Amino acid sequence: MRNETNYNLCDFQTVEKLLKKHSFAFSKTLGQNFLIDDYVCPEMAALLNSDEKTAVIEVGPGIGVLTKELCKTSGKVISVELDKRLYPILEETLGEFDNFELIEGDALKLDFNKLINEHLAGYNTIKFCANLPYYITSELIMKLLEEKASISEIVVMVQKEAAQRLCAQLGTRKTGAVTVAVKYYGEAEILFEVGRESFMPSPKVDSAVIKITVNDDKKYPVGDEKKFFSLVRAAFAQRRKTLVNSVSSSLGIQKSDVANALNELSLNPNIRAEELTMEDFVGLFDLLF
Question: Tell me: the pLDDT tens digits for 135-151?
Answer without folding.
Answer: 899 899 989 998 888 89
